[in-house]
Design a protein that fits this description.
Elements (H helix, E strand, L loop, with lengths): L10 H17 L4 H21 L5 H19 L16
Length: 92
């Protein structure tokens, strides 16, 4: 995982990657079965949003970041055992 020589990341891109890593770290504290489920949901959500959300829709991306941080805080709670996916469509 050496340094890449591509484009520098924007502040918002860094926030998204930090949130993604936070979810993966929080998943490590759960049981092996739950960890796999959580990692799968997180991966699917981030991939789906990377394809469906316009990169210039900063307001919606900020909303997703806020929602993600709330979900991450819940996931860090020792009593929480899983994570579910919530799909919202604001394109209309």
């Amino acid at each position: 995982m050496g340094g890449t020589r591509g484009q520098k990341l924007s502040g918002m891109q860094k926030q998204v990657l930090s949130l993604y890593r936070g979810f993966l770290r929080a998943a490590r504290s759960k049981s092996e079965e739950e960890r796999c489920k959580i990692e799968s949901v997180v991966c699917q959500e981030f991939r789906r949003n990377s394809k469906e959300v316009d990169r210039k829709n900063f307001q919606y991306i900020e909303y997703l970041l806020r929602r993600g941080h709330k979900q991450l805080d819940q996931l860090r709670n020792p009593g929480t055992t899983g994570l579910s996916s919530l799909q919202l469509d604001f394109s209309k």
